[in-house]
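Hi, here's the filled form for the chain we discussed.

Project: internal
Contact: R.S.
Residues: 247
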Amino acid sequence: MQPQDLVRDHTIYACVMGSRAFGLATDASDTDRRGVFLAPTPLYWRFEKPPTHVEGPGEERFSWELERFCELALRGNPNILECLHSPWVEHVDDTGRELLSLRDAFLSRQAHGTFSRYALGQRKKLEADVRATGGPRWKHAMHLLRLLMSARDLLRSGELRIDVGEQREPLLAVKRGEVPWARVEAWMARLAAEGEEALRGSPLPPEPDHARVAGFLHRVRRASALRPEPDHRAVRAGLGAGRVGQG
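And the returned structure, exactly as it came back:
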């Protein structure tokens, strides 16, 4: 079994992300696909373990093994949390539906820290571009504004919504370079301050529900271990490849 076979045969959830999920797509936008696969439990009884993530098949697809996905979601990783809230779901089975039912278990006030650190890293890259070339990469500036909006609204409402709605046109104007960098900077600063204010009265719990997520993962691992062929044949065949990509 090759790593990409795990994506093909064991995906429990697949969605479209990027501009199409955010409501920011144009005619030139790519279709970025993300997914979660459940590696059969008997594969973990070997020295050579299944990959934690797989790139492909296709240039725009990236998938995580369920355990790794849950680990990152519990840490408040913005990309992972947003993946769980995509409005464009392409595939979901019973296990995937149970994962989606746990979306609130991953959300907590800790998301403020993870979103903020990610935003700060992106902001530094934009500032480096301005120093080097006189202007930022406007597409990246647009997506940073979108992320700051998403984080603020999550802290305010306790719900993660990733479609930008009525902010589509103002954000696309940034992408086209029609908004001066000074105004974009001020917009970013205002959104960050609003996020800080929202944190103080946020309805989110202080921490994610680790026990609930761990119980889910234990159930699906046990069910996979008890499942008959073909999963056990996959153990004898072996993975035939190492880890793929980064994640």
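Let me know if anything looks off before we file it.
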